[in-house]
Amino acid sequence: MTTIITRLYEDAATARAAADALLNNGHDADTIDIIAGAEDTESRMKAARVNADSASAYAPAVAGGKALLVVRAPFAPMGTARNAMKVVDRFASIKVGVENEDEYVREAASIAARGSILADHPLLMSNKFRRLGHGHILGSNPIKPSRPRTSAIRGGAFMSTKFWPMRLVSANAKKGTSAINGGWLISKSFGIPTLIGRVETPVPSILK
User: Fold this and answer.
1) Confidence class of residue 24 from pLDDT cuts 50, 70 and 90?
2) Measured distance CA(192)–CA(121) in Å, rounded
3) For residues 107 and 76, what is the distance between their CA atoms, to the nearest angstrom?
4) Exposed, middle or buried by CB within 10 Å (0-12, 13-18, 19+), for 111?
5) How many Å is the maximal CA-CA distance in the chain?
6) How is residue 177 annotated by DSSP?
7) What is the residue-averaged pLDDT of the chain?
8) pTM for the complete prediction?
């Protein structure tokens, strides 16, 4: 979104003063135009993105010695257009029947340029660009060359060695029968068996 701000001033000196005030407020010089004099007025207003109806209203006044200030205020940073309006309105302007001196213009995307910026860029993702084979989305480590990793810590250390002097997992661990050091069973603390391996159902004497 761009706002085309137009103000007609009595002379070029007033228009230049307004333009200098814009520059002092951080506006880009490439977005500011001063159109004065009778030479090629219509094409200059068209190049500055003044709409046709407004240009027709401004043209006779510019040809008669007035000066037109045009500001193309972008959407970002937010508030640029509003700030530009406040600055230019510090200077007395001339009204010539222009319906909208602050016209919002919606920017249309360029379909022709879509998809053509990165397709063959040599540094698409920092490595030399290469087309990938079928079935691959990004390929193998497109950001930087891959290398074997055995540890999540830079330098190859293991986190377990930072707070425990021994390995936490042993490949040759012995089969244990108790989760408590010393080998005794926690079920013995209750005085009754917590697991019964086999239940014998008594047979009624009448069936013996």
Assistant:
1) very high
2) 75
3) 13
4) exposed
5) 131
6) S
7) 76
8) 0.54
